[in-house]
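Support reply, case 0932

Customer input (verbatim):
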Amino acid sequence: MNDNTMPAIEAQGVVDREPVAYELAFHVLPTVAEGEVESVFSSLKEHITKAGGEVFDTEAPERFDLAYEIVKYLEGRNRRFSSAYFGWIRFRLDPRTLAAVTETVEGEKRLLRYLLIRLTKEEEQAPFRFHESIEKTKVTTITDEVILDEVVAEVEGDVVVEEEAKVAGGDEEVKSV
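Our regenerated output:
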């Protein structure tokens, strides 16, 4: 052995001793009763801690409409799902025990799908709160006329109206604000 190389076994030991940050994002089947979703979430966290992991951040699963249908083979046939419960768990774990966690997650029949990723230091410091972000985009139906008039008055103050005018002698349109 020369001074520039390290035996593979020693190099592996140095790298693998440090816990690595991961995120497990998952969809729980919408057929799971709402009261059971918390037990799926707790079960996943429990399996991570049993494997020696340390959970440091979570977002509990909440139901939402999927952007597209997901097809999953269940009970002898393909079933289509247009909604699911989405949540995630962030944890630190020795990479040598990650296979045990992955095996457990793959065996969980109540999951529609999952994604397990290794986090960068930047991603670890700034988690994305999915449910908070979609809360701002939800559409609200207003039925009370008084409230509706107030909302319309507020919105009209923020709206910029564009006027279109034809340029004399040409086919071009000019927009003015």
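We compared this against your earlier run and they match. Two observations from our side: The chain has two domains: 13-135, 145-176. The CA atoms of residues 20 and 92 lie 5 Å apart. Please reopen the case if you see a mismatch on your end.
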